[in-house]
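Morning. Coffee machine broken again, so started the prediction first thing and wrote up yesterday's gels while waiting. Chain of 126 residues, entered below exactly as on the submission form.
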Amino acid sequence: MTGNHTTSFPDTGGIEPFAGDVSVFFDPSHTLILLRGDIDLAVAADLEDAGRDAIDAKAPIVADVRAVSLIDSVGISFLVRLAASGREAGTTVSLRGPAPRVAELLTLVGASDLFVWDNSPEGAAS
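Came back before lunch.
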């Protein structure tokens, strides 16, 4: 191939695309895992820590995935393993939202029945 090859990226107004973020919040009634941005290999270690901490808390788990902009096999695998571990520990895992892409992929891999789906506008855990 000859000539200049230039890759064009969308204009983000100087703002970097939102990298993934994983946060865990503990409450006596439930444990909240908040996932935001790109949930992929870059946050794999954070996902593992969040899942372990949530299971160890021995409370119902709410995974808030409303702000997920991208999720790959690492993120989907995390959610499926979280739900399976929750069941083994005798607790429920609810998905708050979820973002359309997350719901689509979980349904595609046949894992949608592992979760309690919370689609309420307020996002209150059921």
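The chain has one domain: 21-118. Going to sketch it on the whiteboard this afternoon.
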